[in-house]
Amino acid sequence: MSRTFGAVIIGDEILSGKRQDKHFAKIAEMLGKRGLLLSWVEYLGDDRARLATTFKRTMAAGDVVFSCGGIGNTPDDHTRQAVAAALGVGLELHPDGFEELKVRFANEEITEQRKQLVTFPAGVEILPNPFNRIPGFMIHEHYFVPGFPQMAHPMIEWALDRFYAEYFQPVDGKLEKAFLLTGPNAYESALLDLMERIVDEYPTLRLFSLPSLIGTERRHLELGVEGEPALVEKAMEEIRLEIERRGIHWTWRP
Fold first, then answer.
1. pTM of the full structure
2. For the range 204-207, what are the long-range contacts, defined as Cβ-Cβ under 8 Å and sequence gap of 24 or more?
3. Is 144 exposed, middle or buried (0-12, 13-18, 19+ CB in 10 A)?
């Protein structure tokens, strides 16, 4: 049995280009190291209604979702309120979150503003934050973490290792190979029948094709497969024989 993993990355500053997203590639990497794939990612601004609609949809879909950003206590943070709206519940001070807050601010006053940091939708569980003890929260296999990568990424790894270890796949036993194809017939539409045949004959392999353009000039097509080494070798040999038959020049991808 496999699971579908997705990511929601939140922030007007990302959509405006003021900040570059540092979550997408890292989440894909963390999943990849465990033999898992990131199936989708959505970028959303700080729009409470749109966030609520999105989370209601993703929760109904049954995917595992990592949401980065917007869980703070400033007026431009809307994730907590949006999740509450999606769930149809209110916000409340989380008792376990408050205990973490007391440790974090052991020698300082815990103000009402600080309490808002752990005021979460009713019914959620806290998600530990090893960086500064101010937790995120989780519900329905959705994991809500801060926008800071130093906090978010360890929290996501914790959730993966704690809840999804049974889905991890061996990584060392996988092989990826690809050809760089050039010439007038080295384009995807001309090779669709070959690709479809390989997918049908080797359903456990992942086939990929990546065209490259410089300006309007077609440069090359990267065509390959990933999976169990013996099957990869067999599939690549079939691909090689067919592209040579069609007069397409190939080299191994570096």
1. 0.80
2. 204/228, 204/231, 205/231, 205/232, 205/235
3. buried
